């Protein structure tokens, strides 16, 4: 084996290790060790580098190095499919079974500060005509009737969704069907830092428990995006890195506490369940895996195609909004739309029950 072959094989081994570490870093509790959770955030980039190296080694006829990376990609697929699923086909709907269309969106207060233009997010929600809509950052500090951006659409909203509820501070539900709010001790914890509500809906096909989540934000601001963009500037780099890592560390630890409380609610929830909303965490993370447990399925992973993102502000493009489901219902479709004036994009899923 010559020097070039040994070098390429070493590069392949290092890249394969980095890929597997990022793919399965979400199995390590960030309260014990933060580095694996940070590596999980880098998984899309690490995967792209691994694929590029594999193709390069194959083109150069270094098959062993290429095979090492191919094996690592195969071993990483259970996590990679969460961020970039390849669902080429969808189930055929049965006309004899009722369907349920649901939508989740962080509406960023319906852009209420702009008093001149009607809310694009509200218009989008009405046009989708979903059976159940859950919203985050739903602006409960003000009455919708007093907002000029929403006035023209309120009559249509009230007619289409006769069953509605806004909660302090920030989550709500719009439903075509009656519901009752779920009372649970798990929903009363840590309410200053995250917002979870649940409702039992009399939906087509039988009772359905709907959970709207908005886990605590990582609190990245426009200044933080500048910090990230300036990482290549040597002066003060350590301080900038420490600032970002500290925010991530705090956010990850907070999410662990929050999703464990949510799991208590889910473990006490019989029957069909939908969990939707702004999780502020990415697929494959420790919080994501803890919430899903052994029973919740990710609608995007099961019906989406390719990589996507739902948050798009401050030069950060990540999928932190999710739709999870379990029970006696079949997922037909799931899509991400680029609509509204929010810094989040909505997710829409259709189920058959």
**What structural class is derived from the secondary structure elements?**
alpha+beta
pLDDT < 50 stretches: none
The Cα radius of gyration reads 22 Å
Globally, the shape reads globular
Q: SSE string, helix = H, strand = E?
A: HHHHEHEHEEEEEHHEHEHEEE
Q: Work out the number of β strands.
A: 12
Q: β content, as a range? A: 15-25%
User: If strands are numbered along the chain, what order do they take across the biggest sheet?
Assistant: 3-4-2-1-12-11
- Determine the CATH topology of the largest domain: Deoxyribonuclease I, Chain A
Structure description:
The chain has a 6-stranded mixed beta sheet with strand order 3-4-2-1-12-11. It contains 10 helices and 12 strands. It has helices at about 5-25, 35-40, 45-60, 65-85, 120-130, 150-160, 220-230, 235-265, 285-290, 300-305, and strands at about 100-105, 130-135, 165, 170-175, 180, 195-205, 205-215, 275-280, 295-300, 320-325, 330-335, 345-350. It folds into 2 domains: about 5-85, no CATH class; about 100-350, 4-Layer Sandwich (Deoxyribonuclease I, Chain A), CATH 3.60.10. About 40% of the residues are buried. With about 350 residues, it is α+β, with helices and mostly antiparallel strands.
């Amino acid at each position: 084996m010559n020097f070039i072959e040994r070098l390429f094989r070493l590069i392949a081994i290092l890249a394969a290790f980095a890929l597997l570490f990022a793919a399965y870093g979400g199995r390590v509790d960030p309260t014990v060790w933060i580095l694996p959770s940070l590596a999980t955030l880098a998984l899309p980039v690490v995967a792209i580098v691994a694929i590029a190296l594999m193709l390069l080694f194959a083109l150069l006829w270094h098959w062993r190095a290429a095979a090492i990376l191919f094996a690592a990609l195969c071993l990483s697929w259970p996590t990679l499919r969460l961020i970039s699923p390849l669902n080429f086909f969808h189930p055929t709907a049965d006309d004899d079974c009722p369907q349920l269309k649901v939508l989740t969106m962080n509406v960023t207060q319906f852009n209420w500060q702009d008093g001149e233009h009607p809310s694009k997010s509200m218009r989008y929600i009405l046009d989708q005509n979903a059976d159940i809509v859950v919203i985050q950052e739903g602006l409960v500090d003000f009455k919708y009737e007093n907002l000029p951006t929403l006035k023209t659409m309120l009559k249509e909203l009230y007619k289409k969704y006769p069953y509605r509820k806004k909660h302090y501070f920030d989550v709500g539900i719009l439903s075509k069907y009656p519901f009752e709010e779920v009372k649970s001790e798990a929903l009363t914890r840590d309410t200053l830092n995250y917002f979870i509500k649940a409702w039992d809906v009399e939906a087509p096909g039988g009772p359905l428990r709907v959970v709207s989540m908005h886990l605590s934000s990582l609190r990245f601001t426009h200044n933080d995006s500048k910090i990230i963009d300036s990482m290549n500037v040597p002066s003060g780099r350590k301080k900038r890195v420490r600032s970002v890592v500290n925010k991530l560390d705090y956010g990850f630890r907070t999410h662990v506490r929050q999703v464990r409380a949510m799991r208590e609610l889910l473990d006490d929830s019989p029957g069909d369940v939908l969990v939707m909303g702004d999780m502020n965490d990415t697929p494959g993370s420790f919080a994501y895996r803890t919430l899903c447990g052994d029973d919740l399925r990710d609608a995007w992973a099961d019906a989406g195609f390719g990589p996507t993102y739902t948050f798009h502000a401050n030069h950060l493009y990540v999928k932190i909004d999710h739709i999870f489901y379990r029970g006696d219902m079949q997922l037909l479709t799931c899509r991400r739309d680029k609509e509204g004036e929010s810094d989040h994009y909505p997710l829409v899923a259709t189920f058959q029950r």
